[in-house]
Amino acid sequence: MSDGQLKSDIAKSDTARSESAKSETGKTENVAAVLKVFAVMEALVEDKRVSLADLAQRAMTSKTTAHRLLQTMMELGYVEQDAETEKYGLTLKLFSLGARSLNEQADLLRVADQAMGRLSRATGESVNLGILDDRDQKVVYIHKYDSIFSLSMKSTLGLRNPLHSTSLGKALLAWRAPDEIRERLAKMEFPKLAPRTITDPDVFFAQLHEIQAQGFAEEVEESEAGVRCMATPIFNHLGRPIAAMSISFPLFRFDEARKGEYVALLTGAGRFASETLGHRTA
């Protein structure tokens, strides 16, 4: 290799390292800016009206940076400034966003709770409510009724489980458009978690079609050995599956002769919740 070529390669390498360093620096600065914005918001929530100096101190930044952040937040309608005291405070816009989100979840929980209570009393088994975590493609448990029996499946609120191994996950996916399902499957991993976990995306996709046709989802030792679950979707007024409800049984306590009864109770509960939320079947 000639000296000229060597110098050229060294220069390219230095440039690449420089660009990489700039990229990392940019990411770090972006994270720092976001942290400062939330520090300002939290200060305004706690103290209602706060001076620029106090906000800068709380966000651990300069007055110039704090002022720039506040001006942007004012332009977006989240912050206002008192003309007399020059102190800053939050507008109702942030409250409005939070209230809309809470109202939707509150309606779902209120309606689902009635249906889940009926299921719990009728079966005595664990009943769970789950929603889809769009970011991680997992099911999140947001409400539950524990079994009356000492030996039963115990779930934790806030727990996130894979979609491919749970009846809740299957019910959340099966009633979506095929293109959306395939897009979500492409983002998922399919680890084997129990003796009968489905690990092939194509097999899983085909099963989702069968689930929609039969009207409920099922898993038998796919998420946990010795556990069998059935789930049904809950639809909103637009016909979108926004949640799913499940019953969980230890295998030894599942009565195959009563399966039709369990399915009827489950799908009836899902239909009640969906219709109460405004869903109308064709």
What features would you describe in this structure?
The chain is an alpha+beta fold and 282 residues long. It has 2 domains: 3-91, Orthogonal Bundle (Arc Repressor Mutant, subunit A); 100-276, 2-Layer Sandwich (Beta-Lactamase). It has helices at 3-47, 52-58, 63-75, 93-123, 167-174, 178-187, 201-214, 259-276; strands at residues 79-81, 88-90, 126-133, 138-145, 160-162, 217-220, 227-235, 241-250. A hairpin with a 5-residue loop joins strand 7 (227-235) and strand 8. Helix 2 (52-58) crosses helix 3 and helix 4 (93-123) packs antiparallel against helix 8. The longest helix is centred in the N-terminal third of the chain and has 45 residues, at 3-47. The model has no long low-confidence stretch (mean pLDDT 85).
Portion in helices: 40-55%
Gyration radius, rounded = 26 Å
Task: Return the CATH architecture of the largest domain.
Answer: 2-Layer Sandwich
The name CATH uses for the topology of the largest domain is: Beta-Lactamase
First and last CA, distance: 75 Å
Number of helices: 8
How many structural domains can be distinguished in the coordinates? Answer: 2
Number of separate strands: 8
- Element pattern in H and E: HHHEEHEEEHHHEEEH
Question: Which class do the helix and strand fractions yield?
Answer: alpha+beta
What does the main sheet amount to?
A: 6 strands, antiparallel
- Runs with pLDDT <50, length 5+? none
- The H-level CATH homologous superfamily of the largest domain, spelled out, is GAF domain
Strand content: 15-25%
